């Protein structure tokens, strides 16, 4: 575990738990220039509609960056003093990396190393997927395992960690 030198908040929760809304409020309350890094891909029309709705809901006060794979490269490109960067979300990023058969260990290590070095305020969102039953198929089990390992790495680097359930934040660290 590293010595915490970052101003990073990690926000975990289940689907529709209120985690993204909570994360957005953290960024807005800071008064910094707002950047939103979206990792999701529009695989179908329903997902495309969700993405469009999220963009419209955020409004024009956010700079949106869509980056499904090179998350650290995107963060480096927009990092800077006076900025807040919201990453939403790590589990979609994990899905994209798996679909592209990327080196998960290297990708995760790169992100974990970047977090404490960031100059911007980072707020990172992810779905907690390890609280349910053991998935019935290998790919789903690998996804759950990758997400769990990544969450541990990011939580170790973050100054603050929240778990959101039913729209209510539980501060776990910081």
Automatic annotation (TrEMBL):
Q: Which family does it belong to?
A: Belongs to the CobU/CobP family.
Can you name the source organism? Answer: Rhizobium favelukesii
Query: E.C. number, please?
Result: 2.7.1.156, 2.7.7.62
Reaction catalysis annotation = adenosylcob(III)inamide + ATP = adenosylcob(III)inamide phosphate + ADP + H(+); adenosylcob(III)inamide + GTP = adenosylcob(III)inamide phosphate + GDP + H(+); adenosylcob(III)inamide phosphate + GTP + H(+) = adenosylcob(III)inamide-GDP + diphosphate
Q: Keywords on this record?
A: ATP-binding, Cobalamin biosynthesis, GTP-binding, Kinase, Nucleotide-binding, Nucleotidyltransferase, Transferase
Q: To which pathway does this protein belong?
A: Cofactor biosynthesis; adenosylcobalamin biosynthesis; adenosylcobalamin from cob(II)yrinate a,c-diamide: step 5/7; Cofactor biosynthesis; adenosylcobalamin biosynthesis; adenosylcobalamin from cob(II)yrinate a,c-diamide: step 6/7
Task: Enumerate the InterPro entries for this protein.
Answer: CobU/CobP, P-loop_NTPase
Q: What does this protein do?
A: Catalyzes ATP-dependent phosphorylation of adenosylcobinamide and addition of GMP to adenosylcobinamide phosphate.
Protein name stated in the entry: Bifunctional adenosylcobalamin biosynthesis protein
> Active site: which residues?
54 (gmp-histidine intermediate)
What sort of enzyme, by top EC class, is this? transferase
This protein's gene is called cobU
- Binding of GTP occurs at 13-20, 38-40, 55-58, 66, 88
An example GO biological process term is: cobalamin biosynthetic process
């Amino acid at each position: 575990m590293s010595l915490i030198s970052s101003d990073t908040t990690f926000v975990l929760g289940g689907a529709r738990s209120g985690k993204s809304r909570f994360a957005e409020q953290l960024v807005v309350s800071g008064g910094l220039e707002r950047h939103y890094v979206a990792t999701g891909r529009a695989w179908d029309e329903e997902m495309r509609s969700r993405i469009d709705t999220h963009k419209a809901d955020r409004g024009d006060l956010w700079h949106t960056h869509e980056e499904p794979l090179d998350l650290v490269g995107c963060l480096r490109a927009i990092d800077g003093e006076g900025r807040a960067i919201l990453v939403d979300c790590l589990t979609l990023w994990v899905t994209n990396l798996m679909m592209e058969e990327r080196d998960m260990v290297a990708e995760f290590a790169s992100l974990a190393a970047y977090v404490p070095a960031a100059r911007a305020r980072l707020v990172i969102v992810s779905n907690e997927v390890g609280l349910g039953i053991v998935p019935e198929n290998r790919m789903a089990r690998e996804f759950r395992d990758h997400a769990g390992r990544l969450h541990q790495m990011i939580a170790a680097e973050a100054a603050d960690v929240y778990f959101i359930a039913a729209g209510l934040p539980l501060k776990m660290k910081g």
